[in-house]
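Email to the structure team, subject: Methylglyoxal synthase model.

Hi all, the expression group asked for a predicted structure before they design truncation constructs. Nothing fancy, just the tokens so they can compare against earlier work. One-line instruction: predict Methylglyoxal synthase, return tokens.
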Amino acid sequence: MAGGKSIALIAHDQKKDAMAEFARRNQAALADWHIVATGTTGGRVLDACPDLKVTRLKSGPLGGDQQIGALIATGEIDMLVFFIDPLTPLPHDVDVKALTRLAVVYDIPMALNESTAERLIKTLNH
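Reply from the structure team: attached below.
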């Protein structure tokens, strides 16, 4: 991801509508970012905001979480927004923990819910 700021967007199944709505509400701010998203989440964001620059990776359970983790480790992601559904069992919970651990290790801003994501996107765009 040469040049510019990159943001990773991921949402669990029950949070995909919330992620699409977050993108729609913040479309102007997100236009300044290169967006990397897991497969289905990226598709939902593009449906809501077709003018955004979104690179879709694999679905989370099929390796998308790990692809984003690798981009974090190589310094290619500047911020992570990961809408987690704490009330649904996650078959790929190990991948989720690895991804959030990498965001902490590499000290990038990370939002795990909408209110934090709203504050981060506003803060980092100024």
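The chain has a mean pLDDT of 91. The chain has one domain: 4-122. Ping us if the truncation boundaries need rechecking.
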